[in-house]
Amino acid sequence: METESEPYVRLATLRQLHQVVADLNTARSLADTLQTVADGIVAGLGYELACVNLVRPDGDLVVAAFAGSAAAEALITGRVGSRPSWERRLSMGEAWGELRFIPHTEGWVLIEDDVPQWHTEGPDPRFEDEWHPQDRLYAPMYASGGGRELLGVISVDRPRNGRRPGPWGQEALQMYASQAAIAISNARLRANMQRALVRLEREQQALRASEESFRQAFEYAPSGMAIAEMGGDQHGRLLRTNDALCRLLGRPAAAMRRYSFADLVHPEDVGTLLRTSAEGGRAELRLGRRDGTYIWVSLRNSVVADTADGPRFLLTHVEDIEERKRHELQLAHRASHDSLTGLPNSAELRARLSSRLCERPHAARETAIEALDAAYESDTEHIFGGDGFDFETTGVPYDHHVHAIAPDSEIDDGTKGLAVLFCDLDGFKSINDRFGHQTGDAVLVEVARRLTTLVRDNDTVARLGGDEFVVLADGLGAADAADLAVRLRNAIILPIRVGGRGVRVGASFGIGWASCGMSVEEVLQSADQRMYIEKRSRAKVHRRAG
Question: What is the mean pLDDT of residues 142-170?
Fold first, then answer.
């Protein structure tokens, strides 16, 4: 039965409970909140000692806050009790609602477990509801929601009135534990949010620093850099170029944004650009400058993304290789051209002639085509299979090669072929002997110039060696080749002035024809033999005339 003073005690306790619950929401951090929970039990609920045990990520409980005894706080704060030991305690004794009370008559079995504990000393109780020094009272704290996730446990020791808490005291402690659980959950949430904000800010700072670093590396790179779109209608369009690339191409950045590399590349290098436009692609090609000239560059591509799922861009590094390329071309020219006359040398002549010849003669191909025509007429479905030409069935591959054929040298029947004019200078040795090799070299240079002047742009004039020259002229008939030989000979025999004196050399020409099925040496040997035939014939005529 409630005494007269109990309503006043309850009202005072309610005021104190209200105040300490309000204090729970003023703490700035999780550590402050945990200490406020412990302090509120001592200051507001009338217990001499209070300990807050918090569940760690591994499931065990750590003493996170203590109030009521500085000595006890220093001794057990930070110590850990295992989860099984705590679950054992929360399943013993008497259940006071959510609270768990373990009287001293049962608690002796817990003295040796690993849960950190502290209790006040005092005499044994003299009456039934008096608090014993080894009584234990726990208030579990659960997270809000239906899962009843354990956040921690509040343990208290010895009420100041020396008596076990009655129904009102039990209800007050349970209410406080519930509010403490909310405050701890909120503090954790705030702490997580603060950590996330700090982490986000650090990531943003790192991103800004990375972007600034990339911007500076891009803008101030000594070689050209460009960023282009990937995909879409504007695929390949230049979005951004650095100063080095603008200077290299002589174009302002605003103008560069109107182009793609495909717009700037040399027409002969478009295929090279397309083959190397993907990730990791490399190419050496020519880009057009504003003044209409072209410069050799090396392109190296890499793909970058704006965000994890954002658009992708092509980052291209452009390096000026004009000097290296010029040097390479000079070396290649030296290797393939005669150092005295600048004409293609013997190796280059053979390479050009070889590119026009195949091992299969023209007649063999005609026979194969006739066989295909016959097969087509007799068994179209077998050859095409309903899907197209069956190369394996026919055994003859598709061939874009235009076969070189030899026209009849006796009768000009209109057939055009690749004429090979073999030229040997007459009397050159005597010039070397009489006037020296310097004069002989000047004669060879002048002969090379005269030969080059009289042929077409796509014809080849090569120095085979010594005083021997070869002219390759495609698309000529027998009469055309003979006429060209006469014109070349007439140009060579004109006087050549060297060092104030005029010297003359003669020239003998032999006309051979390149034909598929012949080797390069066979073609040259054929023209050489015809040249000697002509030389002997002219020598006989000269002797008769003498």
Answer: 88
pLDDT in tens, 422-432: 999 999 999 98
Which residues are 55's β-sheet partners? 61
pLDDT of the residue at 383: 38
What beta strand segments (E) does 311-459 contain?
A: 312-320, 417-426
Pairing of strands 136-142, 99-102: antiparallel
List all residues 6 or more positions away from 446 whose beta carbon is below 8 Å from its beta carbon.
Answer: 496, 498
- CA proximity to 49, closest of 129, 112, 182, 138: 138
Residue 374: the pLDDT is 58
8 Å CB contact between 174 and 181: no
Q: In the numeric block, which tokens belong to residue 124?
A: 């044994």
Check residue 115 and report its DSSP letter: S
CB 135 within 8 A of CB 164: yes
The yes-or-no verdict on residue 140 having pLDDT over 80 is yes
Q: Please name the residue ranges forming H helices in 390-492.
A: 391-394, 428-435, 437-454, 478-492
474 as an active site residue: the answer is no
List, in order, residues 6 or more apart from 24 with CB less than 8 Å away.
Answer: 33, 36, 37, 40, 179, 180, 182, 183
User: If we measure between CA atoms, which residue out of 482, 440, 447 comes closest to residue 462?
Assistant: 447
How big is the CA angle at 537 (ends 535 and 539), to the nearest 5 degrees? 70
CA distances (Å), origin 546, targets 334, 439, 480, 532: 46, 29, 32, 21
pLDDT tens readout for residues 488-518: 999 999 999 998 888 999 999 999 999 888 8
Q: Does position 373 have pLDDT exceeding 60, yes or no?
A: no
Within 10 angstroms of residue 288's Cβ, the number of other Cβ atoms is 18
Residues 217-231 pLDDT 10s = 888 888 899 988 887
DSSP 8-state class, residue 277: -
Q: pLDDT digits over 177-186, tens only?
A: 998 888 888 8
Would you say 126 and 26 are in contact if contact means Cβ atoms under 8 Å apart?
no
Residue 346 clears pLDDT 90, i.e. is over it:
yes
Alpha carbons 21 and 294: distance in angstroms, whole number: 81
Task: Give 167: exposed, middle or buried? Use CB within 10 Å, 0-12, 13-18, 19+.
Answer: exposed
Sheet strands side by side (includes 282-288): 238-241, 224-229, 312-320, 294-305, 282-288
Residue 54 has pLDDT above 90, yes or no: yes
**Three-state SS for 11?**
helix
**How many other C-beta atoms can be found within 10 angstroms of the C-beta atom of residue 505?**
22
Which listed residue (320, 424, 459, 467) is catalytic?
467
What pLDDT score was predicted for residue 61? 94
> Nearest Cα to 83, choosing from 105, 109, 57, 103?
57
Handedness of CA 150, 156, 161, 163 (dihedral sign): positive
CA torsion, points 51, 55, 59, 63, in degrees to nearest 10?
-30
pTM above 0.85, yes or no: no
The rounded distance, in Å, linking the Cα atoms of 444 and 259 is 49
pLDDT of residue 278: 60
